[in-house]
């Protein structure tokens, strides 16, 4: 039987807007000093478990790409950028604090908490996010080949919807999974039509890791 592809999803290190509790979406505030330290710790954990990946892929947003560099410095290979692995497009909510959005759009947040899938800030739905992220992961798995290990540096939202897609949960499915902490690992066994598995979810690699909004 053909071995599944191991997809190892890594959330980026702590960013400035994580600390300030601002929505980021597809904007980027850069890693904090703590975020860069988290990336180094995550790199050590990845090297211990996955010292010879077959492929490394990253979101093209700086907070994910910069997290990847700590790992890549120890490998004789480069990462491929894929914009489909970006965080959700949240439109006009970018840069706004969680408190501001809660005060101005309580109806939208309530709908989302009930399991609805509104276009936050006029951007994407989580179902939209899930389709593009899963397509990127399927393509990466196909490129790497059966039995390969693919390391994927991305964001909290993509990790949640990818786990839901792997298990075939109804769209969007993200509410079944807690927001991943910074530089945590999620491992998906991808076998296509033969079925997939979430072997590991939100496993911390860094000290003092805490959950922040996935945006």
Automatic annotation (TrEMBL):
| Documented EC number(s) | 3.1.3.-
Keywords for this protein: Hydrolase
By its UniProt entry, which CDD domains does this protein fall under? HP_PGM_like
**Listed GO MF terms:** hydrolase activity
- Which InterPro entries does this UniProt record tie to the protein? His_Pase_superF_clade-1, His_PPase_superfam, PG/BPGM_mutase_AS, PGM_Phosphatase
Source domain of life is Bacteria
Where is the signal peptide, in residue numbers?
Answer: none
SMART domains according to UniProt: PGAM
- Protein's UniProt name: Histidine phosphatase family protein
**Protein species of origin:** Nonomuraea salmonea
């Amino acid at each position: 039987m053909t071995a599944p592809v191991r997809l190892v999803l890594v959330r980026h290190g702590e960013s400035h807007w994580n600390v300030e509790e601002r929505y980021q979406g597809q904007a980027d505030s850069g890693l904090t000093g703590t975020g860069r330290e988290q990336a180094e710790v995550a790199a050590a954990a990845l090297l211990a478990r996955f010292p010879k990946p077959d492929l490394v892929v990253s979101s093209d947003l700086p907070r994910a790409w910069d997290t990847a560099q700590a790992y890549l410095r120890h490998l004789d290979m480069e990462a491929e950028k894929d914009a489909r692995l970006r965080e959700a497009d949240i439109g006009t909510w970018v840069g706004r604090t969680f408190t501001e959005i809660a005060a101005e759009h309580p109806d939208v947040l309530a709908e989302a908490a009930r399991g609805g899938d509104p276009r936050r800030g006029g951007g994407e739905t989580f179902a939209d996010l899930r389709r593009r992220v899963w397509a990127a992961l399927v393509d990466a798995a196909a490129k790497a080949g059966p039995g390969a290990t693919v390391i994927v540096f991305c964001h909290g939202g993509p990790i949640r919807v990818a786990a839901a897609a792997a298990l075939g949960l109804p769209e969007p499915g993200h509410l079944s999974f807690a927001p991943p902490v910074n530089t945590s690992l999620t491992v998906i066994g991808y076998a296509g039509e033969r079925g997939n598995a979430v072997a590991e979810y939100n496993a911390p690699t860094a000290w003092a890791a805490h959950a922040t909004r996935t945006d």
